[in-house]
Please model this.
Amino acid sequence: MLSQNNDNVFVIIPVFNEKKEVLVQTIRELQKASYSIIVVNDASANDISLPGIGITYSLRHEVNLGQGAALQTGIEFALQKKATYLVTFDADGQHSSADIPALLLPIQNNEADITLASRFLKPGHHNASFSRQLLLKTARWINYLFTGLYLSDAHNGLRAMNRAAAEKVALKENRMAHATEFLFAIKKNNLRFKEIPATVTYTIYSKSKGQSVFNSIRIFFDLVLHKLFE
Amino acid sequence: MNGIKILLITGVVFIAVYFFVRLRNSLFDLILLLLLVCAAVAFILFPEITNQLARNLGVGRGADLVFYTSIIIFWYVILKLYARLRKLEQIITTIVRKNALEQAEISKTIRDDS
Model:
């Protein structure tokens, strides 16, 4: 079911020091489906002005705050612009815009408030290395410990939600622990959620932008502190 | 009174005055500070108290007991500082976000539906 009018679907792309070609490629793919696109530039050092690309909205943080903060800014802006559906999408080219309709479908059919993409639901839908799979499996257990939700994929940047869910999600973790905050919001507000299989394509570039083991430890501590100071 | 005692008490008094000037607004902090200072001075003047306390608690020496309790107090202070840092971060985030939302650029080349 390909919707003709995707104006009310807002795709939020947090951007930090992204390679211009990759970013342009990501945006072009999304434009083909005529989504409304919000690019939130989290104070990138390099120039990512996108003249002539015709992206719909472009926002900029004056100082670097982290991906969680950029997403929240994008979400609030989309809500201001009367978005009906919101999609979060990574800038590094690891997601495929072709997966978005599948994520939106359960929400449009009012079967779910929020859908989370999972690279592990279908075999062969990812080319994650062994170490990355191990990391994601550990993250999955940590998410379970913190939220009681056991998901097949813990840190996938591709999600879709309806307006009501987006209003409930108030990301306070500025850095990467926000992925778990989505689960907190689901749990706390009893949102209906669904995991949808989606492809994740790792390139050398997206790997270089991805999470290291060291970073994962930091995420864990952010979560502990989040719980402590809630 | 020997040299080290004078030195330590002077240090404690100086720190106490400094904190007193900064923490005037909170009564709880003031009382806590006063208690800590009194305890510190008492322990400096009569080290036997700490030894007695330590023995009662099953720790060898009074100095060890003081060391262990300071570690716990330092952990508490670090957590408090962390909490304050997070609060600051949230304030900054709010400001930066507000600016970003106000200065959003809307492309005219595609549709402008605002």
Confidence is low (pLDDT under 50) at residues 108-114 of chain B. Chain B has two domains: 1-45, 63-103. The longest helix of chain B spans residues 62-102. The two ends of chain B are 79 Å apart (CA to CA).
